[in-house]
Amino acid sequence: MAFTTLPEHDDLGAVVPPKARLALYGHEAAFAELIRARSEKRLHHAWLLQGPRGIGKATAAFAFARLLLNARTADGEGATASFFSEDPVIRQIATDAHPGLIHVTRAAQERGSGFRTQITVEEVRRLARFFHATGASDSYRIAIVDPADDMNRNAANALLKMLEEPPDRALFLIVNHTPGRLLPTIRSRCRALRFDPLDPLTLDRTLAAIAPTLSEQERQAMVSASEGSVRRALVMEEHGGIEIVDALEPLLDADRPDWNGIAALADQLTLKGREASFDLAIDSILSTIAKASEAALDAGDGARAARFAALWQSERARIREAVAYNLDRKQVLLTLYNAYHAAAADRFESA
């Protein structure tokens, strides 16, 4: 049964959003920890669902919320958790109508189209009104913050105050892509739950369930290039991600920067309407930097690993600032490309 859901900032075309998905695939260990905590009556009031973007953390949060709000479960082949679409609890959650659940995310712009770039303090204050309106009861009152990375400082401080003095029977499920983006005081008041990228089989099964029009060949291409992220796979399919990765690979592997090649690619990726393709290119280079750090660590070269890790961190911060101030995207890409080659130059010193 299909649900009519309100638009949200991270919607992917016709793909069903996490709040309306009827099954969670993968993440068995993380989900089992939540179930175990509930059954042993030691369910902490705030959980930090941490892991890379797009791997299913929000889907897991909504799945657990359904269980706590007594939605009927179903037998789903290969699924960690599965639910009956006809259950009224499922419909209420999918349409933002359940009195026991609130979903805090980036709000729509008050004027014009589109969404805000941050979760503001006004959105977090909705939580106070939600808990006051629902009052204390025997049922859980659940707040899903998705993702906490998008909160501005005022919003983060407002959430921290609630975590310090949580209402009775309140449960906070806080989605977090990058731990460094959160206030340490928020992290210290939550129980961290790690989510890892999906393995190829589980990712293929997930894509088959939420994007049934994809062919097996299309899914396999997406699985091999998406690093365990459902969202990355879907964005790559919609915005030519496979072609972008193929174009970047020789540019990154070259023994010196190919300025003509990267400039030509940047010209294409910064055309109007190709924002998602540009983001994929940035993510691909950042992923290459992260893999270089991991490879150096595996080889016992701690200094090189630290250099690439520091580069990843600094470039992430620089790119966030560039986005916030709407700086020239072509220059952002060229600077990142140059920084990678400068860090990787010692690959060829002995050649």
UniProtKB/TrEMBL annotation:
Pfam families: DNA_pol3_delta2 (PF13177). GO terms for biological process: DNA-templated DNA replication. SUPFAM superfamilies: P-loop containing nucleoside triphosphate hydrolases. GO terms for cellular component: DNA polymerase III complex. Gene3D superfamilies: P-loop containing nucleotide triphosphate hydrolases (3.40.50.300). This is DNA polymerase III, delta prime subunit. It comes from Fulvimarina manganoxydans. The lineage of its organism: Bacteria, Pseudomonadati, Pseudomonadota, Alphaproteobacteria, Hyphomicrobiales.
